[in-house]
Amino acid sequence: MDRNYQEGPDYPKFLDNNDPLGHFRQRFYVKKDVIYMCGNSLGLASKEADEYTQKAMDVWKEEGIKMWNYDNAKYFLYSDYLAGMMAPIVGADANEIAVVSSTTVNIHQVISTFYKPTETRYKILVDDINFPTDRYVVDSQVRLKGYDPKDAVKIVSPYNGKFMDEDEIINNMTPDVAVVFLPTVYYRTAQILDMDKITKVAKERGIVIGWDLCHAVGAIEINLTDLDADFAVWCTYKYLNGGPGSAAALYINKRHFQMLPGMFGWYGNKTETQFALNQEFEHQQDASGWQLGSPTVASMAGLEGALKIFSEAGMDSIRKKSLHITGYLMFLIETKLLKYGFSIGNFKEDSKRGGHVCLEHDEAYKISTTLKKRGVVPDFRPPNVIRLAPVALYNTYQEVYDLVEILLNIAKTGSYKEVGDNRPLVV
Which InterPro entries match (predicted)? Predict the structure, then answer.
């Protein structure tokens, strides 16, 4: 797509009229007079997600417990079914993916599986700017092994308080490091780490490496097969639009199928002997063997509908538009807002930024709150970031233009100064 952006009000109309993904917007529940820029946190509901959730409810109402055998046991084997739909989005084989649990539970599962400390190699390498649940899990897992996180958790900090340096991460891959666990895209800065570079070195040094893809899946192209990392985890309610609390996913590289999971559950047992109800665990030797309990159908059905849209749109087209529409947003910010104290807090290079733009301002919280009062839905991340995510499948260029015009008006009038300091539970 042409990156020679123009300022005028007719330009976004031109872009929308020539958007090959524009028709997908009609398949989402877009609220009139609301500019939704929060798909990086919770994606909008699609009509397909609604349809498939209702279908699961109808089957339950009609079949009761017999629903587990309905449609060739689709719901009993729902993880396998959804893994097949998920595989092209992350570039993995379907049997390397399990759609299960929540991100936090899945991190516990993979760390408990791959963290096998020895006297000389016992540290887990992380950063200190990722979403904190990852660190909570790592700290608790090293404690379960009898270590103190102050000793066994090795932290790499950003070089300027914001961005991570891949070379510094690699320099910290010392012989005492057993596992490296990092995010692909950072929630606060949208920075993309060079997964290929980091993974290659980790493997050369005999270090297990895994990735948190939560802010990456559905926004950027990923190929886990080419990457050949040991494991990965991700949620499905952000760019994938699976619904609030929709089931998360994990990836286990097929070369590890012979390993036992760190935590056993009856749904990781071999399918053919599950209902033999034996007291000894028989591991299903693919990613489904890392499941714990029964599939949470109500939190998976919406994802089925959402993934059907992704299969039609294709990740290459989605990433192409995402880069273009976020580029347009950054162009308008630089053209109209910099003189009012705004700045762009993410890298501008395509290879280094995910699917959202990090708009910074000293009064970011108050401006974010004012945006919501004006019909714009962003989110705020302390201390000074307004995250804005024009999502390729349902946001328009006109919305981006209107968003910046509203921000300009807020800045010029100073209306954000009327916002108090009391903050709601979820900001």
Answer: Cys/Met-Metab_PyrdxlP-dep_enz, Kynureninase, PyrdxlP-dep_Trfase, PyrdxlP-dep_Trfase_major, PyrdxlP-dep_Trfase_small
pLDDT tens string 193-219: 999 999 999 999 999 999 999 999 999
Q: CB count, 10 Å around CB of 246? A: 26
Does residue 10 have a known ligand-binding role?
Answer: no
Instruction: Provide the pLDDT confidence category of residue 63 given band limits of 50, 70 and 90.
Output: very high
283 annotated as a binding-site residue: no
Q: Are 360 and 344 in contact (CB under 8 A)?
A: yes
Question: Residues 10-62: pLDDT tens digits?
Answer: 999 999 999 999 999 999 999 999 999 999 999 999 999 999 999 999 999 99
Q: How far apart are CA 152 and CA 146, in angstroms?
A: 10
Q: Is the pLDDT of residue 422 over 80?
A: no
Query: Is 70 a known ligand-binding residue?
Result: no
Comparing CA positions, the residue from 320, 340, 335, 342 lying closest to residue 388 is: 342
- What letter represents residue 334's amino acid? E
Burial class (CB within 10 angstroms; exposed 0-12, middle 13-18, buried 19+) of 24: buried
108 marked among binding-site residues? no
Per residue in 352-407, pLDDT (tens digit) is 999 999 999 999 999 999 999 999 999 999 999 999 999 999 999 999 999 999 99
CA neighbor of 40 nearest in space, from 241, 193, 194: 241
212: annotated binding-site residue? yes
Measured in Å, how far apart are the chain's first and last C-alpha atoms? 34
Arithmetic mean of pLDDT over the chain: 97
Cβ within 8 Å of residue 204, ≥6 positions away: none
C-alpha 179, offset from chain centre? 21
Q: Which domains does the chain have, with CATH numbers?
A: 11-30+315-416 (3.90.1150.10), 50-311 (3.40.640.10)
DSSP 17-79: HT-TTGGGGGGB-PPTT-EE-BTTTSPPPBHHHHHHHHHHHHHHHHHGGGGGGHHHHTTTTHH
Backbone phi and psi for residue 225, each to the nearest 5 degrees, phi listed first: -65, -50
pTM for this model (two decimals): 0.96
Backbone angles phi, psi at 48, to 5 degrees: -70, -40
